[in-house]
Design a protein that fits this description.
Layout lengths: L1 H52 L16 H4 L8
């Protein structure tokens, strides 16, 4: 009888360690999800600000600076030197 109780105790201990391992893996996945969700949220906020302010990015390979608005980039038409 005591052997059966010892075996049962060992089995319960093994299952407890397996449950702890699964719990740690789930916590890691949940943490990774929250980090990913935060990064996506940040990207959406930045994109919204850029769209609302008319900021454009150029990926054509030129070294042109990022311009805040098209109106600020054009020179006045009535200038004389």
């Amino acid at each position: 009888m005591s052997t059966k109780v010892d075996n049962l105790s060992n089995e319960i201990e093994k299952h407890g360690s397996k449950i702890d391992d699964i719990r740690h893996k789930i916590s890691f996945i949940k943490g990774a999800f929250w980090v990913f969700a935060g990064m996506v949220g940040f990207a959406v906020v930045v994109a919204t600000i850029m769209i609302n302010n008319g900021i454009t990015l150029s990926f054509s390979g030129s070294a042109a600076p990022i311009q805040a608005s098209p109106a600020a980039a054009t020179a006045p038409a009535n200038t004389t030197e």
